[in-house]
Design brief:
The protein is mostly helical. It is about 80% helix and about 0% strand. It is built from six helices and no strands. The protein is elongated.
Length: about 200
């Protein structure tokens, strides 16, 4: 006689949902990098907005799955924190585009360089979660690679902020500073996610 369904432990695909959120985030950050590289491409900006909405839906599904699950592949707190951090990255990207439009300050080469490092870092995080899900390879090494990409972002950030001292247009300086700082804050979110991943991996070993 089979057990009643309500007695069976729920096993939703927690890592599958997290990976889906990450895949959407990586797609959004690639679009963000394309937006910055093109000096404010409208189609790329629209992609960021659309993907951010899809990622929010997936984040909600993941939280519901965590509530239903009796057993999870990672500590539920770690999964929740990772999902929230990943969400913040894409939200910041969307907000950076909106800020650029409001200030009439299109992204420049420095913004494009930082956006490229952000997209690279998110792909490294995606690789880390893939390795955790498939139990293959060193997930911590991928997370470390994401942190290294963020360090290159910070180097670009400092150089860009230094270069602004040579710009006479105060309005342009203020606009650039805001875009640069937003990219830097996204980098901080990347590091938070990467370090949480490393912690989650260590805890499971």
């Amino acid at each position: 006689m089979s057990r009643p369904r309500w007695l069976l432990p729920a096993r939703p695909d927690i890592l599958g949902l997290l990976r889906h959120q990450l895949a959407l985030t990586a797609q959004g950050m690639d679009a963000f990098a394309a937006w910055a590289a093109a000096g404010g491409d409208a189609q790329a900006a629209a992609t960021v907005h659309a993907v951010e909405h899809e990622a929010d839906v997936t984040k909600g599904e993941l939280r519901s799955a965590l509530l239903a699950a009796f057993v999870t592949p990672l500590d539920p707190e770690d999964v929740f924190t990772l999902s929230r951090g990943i969400d913040w990255i894409l939200n910041h990207a969307k907000d950076t585009i909106a800020e650029s439009e409001v200030m009439a300050c299109p992204p420049d080469g420095a913004t494009a360089a930082m956006a490229a490092r952000l997209a690279e870092a998110v792909h490294h995080i995606d690789d880390a979660v893939e390795r955790i899900a498939e139990r293959s390879g060193d997930a911590a090494a991928c997370a470390d690679a994401a942190v290294k990409a963020e360090r290159r972002l910070e180097k670009a950030y400092r150089a860009a902020m230094g270069a602004l001292t040579e710009v006479a247009d105060v309005r342009a300086v203020m606009g650039r500073q805001e875009l640069y700082r937003r990219c830097s804050r996204m980098g901080e979110s990347v590091v938070d996610v990467a370090e949480r991943l490393i912690y989650a991996v260590l805890k499971e070993n």
